[in-house]
Specification:
alpha/beta, Nuclear Transport Factor 2, Chain: A, two-stranded parallel ribbon, 8 strands, about 15% strand, RNA_pol_sigma70_r2, RNA_pol_sigma_r2, WH-like_DNA-bd_sf, DNA binding, RNA polymerase sigma-70 factor
Length: about 300
């Protein structure tokens, strides 16, 4: 297989790993570009297992980026959310993949150290062995096992119950959008769980709540306020799947204005993620192919 063919074949897997480690499609693309340059400088005939080799290269490049991003995000204005990616409906059929790229899980991963994040993503999401991960991140297998245990305990203590996108969830989103457009606060509150949490990301470049908003009444009032100021006759609202979750995107004048991703449990919205940062909305029209490759069984 030619060198370009091997990279192209595994590109969805490589992008998925980079995105889950970085929380940014733009940074993941940068990592893939850097990794491709390194791959193109190698004689393919000398690489016995191209997939394993490429995963190792991408992991190391993503780790380098992640250490830089950690410092940058400490100065981020307001709440930070991962860059939303439009996912094909089939992603929601893979429960592990859908949960791993969900907004809630990505926020939990953000609280891990770079090494913990890499180990958790590679082992618990992609099924790589501790030995394979040790070779990828330059640590001993014993150390990787310790990191994996620590990261898994941290994630399990903070993870929320996840339900992927479904027909029932999309109907809840439709009712939510109708209530927001017509200004029916009680209808909105009926769709929101009592302890619903809304997180908004404006990045200091668009109007957004600086801190999470909790509670159905508070979230409903905020949503109606935003709807009154942002929805016009020219607004087009599109429903789609983002990060394996039901979502809606508002487009004004051909440019995306906001994106809502919904976390829905038992027919009610328990998490609402609002993206307003224009830098993170620019690429939200493209569907991102995600892949976990050949998988091992889930190991909780």
């Amino acid at each position: 297989m030619a060198e370009g063919d091997a990279f192209t074949e595994h590109r969805p897997l490589l992008f998925t790993i980079a995105y889950e480690m970085l929380g940014s499609a733009a940074d993941a693309e940068d990592v893939l570009q850097e990794s491709y340059l390194r791959w193109s400088a190698v004689d393919p005939a000398t690489v016995e297992h191209p997939r394993a080799y490429l995963v190792r290269v991408v992991t190391r490049q993503a780790l380098n980026h992640l250490r830089t991003l950690k410092a940058r995000r400490e100065d981020y204005v307001g709440s930070w959310l991962p860059e939303p990616i439009r996912t094909a409906p089939g992603v929601s059929e893979d429960a592990i993949l859908a949960e791993s790229v969900s907004m809630a899980m990505m926020l939990v991963l953000e609280t891990l150290s770079p090494a913990e994040r890499a180990v958790f993503v590679l082992h618990d999401v992609f099924g790589y062995t501790h030995g394979e991960i040790a070779a990828s991140i330059g640590k001993t297998e014993v150390t990787v096992r310790q990191i994996a245990h620590r990261a898994r305990r941290h994630v399990h203590a903070r993870r929320r119950r996840f339900e992927p996108d479904s027909g029932a969830a999309r109907k809840v989103v439709q009712r939510f959008l109708l209530a927001a457009q017509t200004g029916e606060i009680q209808a909105l509150m009926d769709l929101l769980a009592p302890d619903v949490v809304q997180v908004s990301d404006g990045g200091g470049k668009a109007t957004a709540a600086r801190h999470p908003i909790t509670g159905s009444a508070e979230v409903a009032r905020y949503v109606l306020g935003v709807a009154r100021t942002s929805l016009t006759a020219a607004t087009r609202i599109e429903q789609a799947t983002y990060n394996g979750m039901p979502a809606a995107r508002s487009v004004n004048g051909g440019e995306p204005d906001w994106l809502l991703a919904f976390e829905i449990h038992d027919g009610r919205i328990s998490g609402l993620y609002v993206m307003r940062n224009p830098d993170k909305l620019r690429r939200t029209d493209a569907v991102r192919p995600l892949d976990r490759g050949e998988l091992q069984p889930w190991k909780p």
